[in-house]
UniProtKB/TrEMBL annotation:
<dbReference type="InterPro" id="IPR013785">
    <property type="entry name" value="Aldolase_TIM"/>
</dbReference>
<keyword id="KW-0288">FMN</keyword>
<dbReference type="InterPro" id="IPR001269">
    <property type="entry name" value="DUS_fam"/>
</dbReference>
<comment type="similarity">
    <text>Belongs to the dus family.</text>
</comment>
<feature type="binding site">
    <location>
        <position position="166"/>
    </location>
    <ligand>
        <name>FMN</name>
    </ligand>
</feature>
<keyword id="KW-0560">Oxidoreductase</keyword>
<dbReference type="GO" id="GO:0017150">
    <property type="term" value="F:tRNA dihydrouridine synthase activity"/>
</dbReference>
<protein>
    <recommendedName>
        <fullName>tRNA-dihydrouridine synthase</fullName>
        <ecNumber>1.3.1.-</ecNumber>
    </recommendedName>
</protein>
<dbReference type="InterPro" id="IPR035587">
    <property type="entry name" value="DUS-like_FMN-bd"/>
</dbReference>
<feature type="binding site">
    <location>
        <begin position="220"/>
        <end position="221"/>
    </location>
    <ligand>
        <name>FMN</name>
    </ligand>
</feature>
<comment type="function">
    <text>Catalyzes the synthesis of 5,6-dihydrouridine (D), a modified base found in the D-loop of most tRNAs, via the reduction of the C5-C6 double bond in target uridines.</text>
</comment>
<feature type="binding site">
    <location>
        <position position="138"/>
    </location>
    <ligand>
        <name>FMN</name>
    </ligand>
</feature>
<dbReference type="GO" id="GO:0000049">
    <property type="term" value="F:tRNA binding"/>
</dbReference>
<dbReference type="InterPro" id="IPR024036">
    <property type="entry name" value="tRNA-dHydroUridine_Synthase_C"/>
</dbReference>
<keyword id="KW-0547">Nucleotide-binding</keyword>
<feature type="active site" description="Proton donor">
    <location>
        <position position="98"/>
    </location>
</feature>
<dbReference type="GO" id="GO:0050660">
    <property type="term" value="F:flavin adenine dinucleotide binding"/>
</dbReference>
Length: 312
């Protein structure tokens, strides 16, 4: 289902962003594989009904991968058994990259890079228990030091079908320079496909592929405010301002369908990104922060993103 020979494009799991509406848009614009927001294995097992909504997918989302976080092998096994009950999930990914302190305190996310044996045991558990086609793992270069190349083949031996690599250590957060050469080192030290991740955008994606030698790209923050980036990469041309306006309007309607009137507040952060670099963006952001009705939001979107306004 994932053709790694074609250098597929993945949408990264982004907490608070890569929800059903954004994934639907990304898929429509040529994203090859979507990944759910990070889902706590504990939450899936112990807050079952509340967490199940996060599994919902668009009919467009094939292949679709659900990302789990956790460090308790037994709990993760139970979470996998829950996921086994759902059709339409094509793979399970283990999060070994999240740098957030509350995740680290649970010995999950990138903290697992400090315990390679446990990490491999968890992957083996997922592979053994899962009835899905793919088992994958998303890692960083290491926790404090760049060591992931030393365990890359161990991850494959444990059952990972492919690896996604964010090119920073946990200590590097999201601000340190991405080390694409270090991703290349991981690629050269394993026999399974490797997907490069970290600050990949329309300007550098070709160089990232060349430098890393990777089998695909995972795009995260560059898709926020630009869900059409997948089409732009594949077709090597930008979409026009009127099409952008239509996408933004569609995004808001998808948000309303998913969240009801709560979408108004949630969508503000997307509008902040969509408006970057445009004349009057600051005033527009201040304006939408005061809006509390769908009708007013639609009107503001229609007016601000009018291509004629941008030209005048």
């Amino acid at each position: 289902m994932i053709d790694f020979s074609s250098k597929p494009l993945f949408l990264a799991p982004l907490a608070g962003f890569s929800d059903l509406p954004l994934r639907s848009l990304a898929k429509r614009f040529g994203c090859d594989c979507t990944v759910s927001e990070m889902i706590s294995s504990n939450a899936l097992v112990y807050e079952h009904d509340k967490t199940l909504a996060m599994l919902e997918k668009s009919p467009l989302e094939t292949p679709y991968i659900v990302q789990l976080a956790g460090s308790d092998t037994d709990v993760i096994a139970r979470a996998v058994e829950i996921l086994n009950e759902f059709d339409g999930i094509d793979g399970i990914d283990l999060n070994c990259g999240c740098p957030v302190p509350k995740v680290i305190k649970q010995n999950a996310g990138s903290a697992l890079l400090n315990e390679p044996k446990l990490l491999c045991n968890i992957i083996e558990t997922i592979k053994t228990k899962s009835n899905k086609r793919y088992t994958s793992v998303k890692i960083r270069l290491g926790f404090n030091t760049k060591m992931a190349h030393l365990i890359a083949q161990d991850l494959a031996n444990a059952g990972a079908d492919f690896i996604c690599v964010h090119g920073r250590t946990r200590a590097g957060g999201y601000s340190a320079p991405v080390d694409y050469e270090a991703i290349a080192k991981i690629k050269s030290n394993t026999t399974i496909p490797v997907i490069a991740n970290g600050d990949i955008n329309l300007d550098n994606y070709q160089n990232v592929l060349k430098t890393t030698g990777c089998d695909g790209l995972m795009i995260g923050r560059a898709s926020i405010g630009s869900p059409w980036i997948f089409k732009e990469i594949k077709e090597n041309q930008s979409i026009n301002p009127d099409e952008k306006r239509q996408v933004i309007k569609e995004h808001f309607e998808l948000m309303l369908n998913t969240y009801g009137n709560h979408a108004i507040g949630i969508f503000r952060k997307h509008l902040h990104e969509y408006s970057k670099g445009l004349n009057g963006a600051s005033e527009f952001r201040s304006s939408v922060n005061q809006i509390h009705s769908p009708e007013q939001m639609r009107e503001q979107i229609e007016q601000f993103f009018d291509p004629c306004r941008a030209i005048s």
